[in-house]
Amino acid sequence: MRLVLDGLAVTLDGRSIVRGADLVVEPGELTGLVGPNGSGKSTLIRAAYRALRPAAGLITVGGDDLVRLPPRESARRIAVVAQENPAELDFTVEDVVLMGRTPHKRPLSRTTAEDLHRCAESLERVDLGHAARRSYATLSGGEKQRVLIARALVQGSRLLLLDEPTTHLDIRHQLDVLHLVRELGITALAALHDLNQATEFCDRIYVMDGGRIVADALTPEVITRVFGVRAVPRTQYAFERLKEDP
Ligand SMILES: Nc1ncnc2c1ncn2[C@@H]1O[C@H](COP(=O)(O)OP(=O)(O)OP(=O)(O)O)[C@@H](O)[C@H]1O
């Protein structure tokens, strides 16, 4: 499902945070969004899942104007793995994942066997099959992130927005998440900090700086201009996920 931002502007507390952003996420592609701290990546992504109202511009999802879609319909189309976690009340991991089913169900309807089956399946995919009954609040940051990815999976949406999905993850789980998103073949937009990973996993990369999209490719020249560092080619370890656990 294609996501298009056309001249998106977001103002927060009178400050212009995102300005005239044009961006296209093509169906089935993983698109990366990189940029220095404070460049506006999270704000852009929050507008794209309707947590913030744009000051100007148009967001379309599958060809429809996002602000005109019924909220249930936009919740069905778009799944989110954001930095902020669900309120840390006494939810089990399973409860948090089941929240992903909400847009598919009538209000106050019971959890079905199918809901539980999908929940178990998606927890397996993020390597947390054993943790369904644990308290969400007691998990590590990385485990919480994987639970949120499982929640996005049960939601079954065709557009996935990820705000720094690998931040708390160790290298193996970082690779798992990025491989998983690619394997799903789901349309995805991910704010990422690791430029090498963005280059390796993303079909296309947009670069933000000062609230604007300033490039749609990550070249050494762009990296220097935007991040103020020189990109030096070096021989380094490349980490590949093992098929089996060691
Ligand atoms: N509610 C708010 N009111 C005013 N300014 C805000 C608000 N929320 C965020 N900002 C500012 O907007 C700017 C962009 O923030 P944003 O979180 O979108 O950047 P980011 O690129 O995701 O950064 P990071 O890489 O550090 O996560 C920052 O300067 C931030 O301080």
Give the distance, in angstroms, between the N- and C-terminal Cα atoms. Answer: 37 Å
Shape: globular
- Please mark out the parts with pLDDT under 50 across 5 or more consecutive residues, or reply none: none
Query: Mean pLDDT, rounded to whole units?
Result: 91
Overall helicity: 25-40%
Rg, nearest Å: 18 Å
Beta content comes to 15-25%
Count, helices? 8
**What spatial order of strands do you see in the largest sheet?**
6-7-8-3-9-10
Secondary structure class reads: alpha/beta
Question: SSE string, helix = H, strand = E?
Answer: EEEHEEHEHHHEHEHEEH
Question: What is the CATH homology-level superfamily?
Answer: P-loop containing nucleotide triphosphate hydrolases
Q: Per CATH, which architecture?
A: 3-Layer(aba) Sandwich
CATH class: Alpha Beta
CATH topology: Rossmann fold
Counted up, domains total: 1
For the report, how would you describe the main beta sheet?
6 strands, mixed
- Ligand inventory: adenosine-5'-triphosphate
* Number of strand segments: 10
Keywords: ATP-binding, Nucleotide-binding, Transport
Pfam family, one: ABC_tran
InterPro entries: AAA+_ATPase (IPR003593), ABC_transporter-like_ATP-bd (IPR003439), ABC_transporter-like_CS (IPR017871), P-loop_NTPase (IPR027417)
GO molecular function: ATP binding; ATP hydrolysis activity
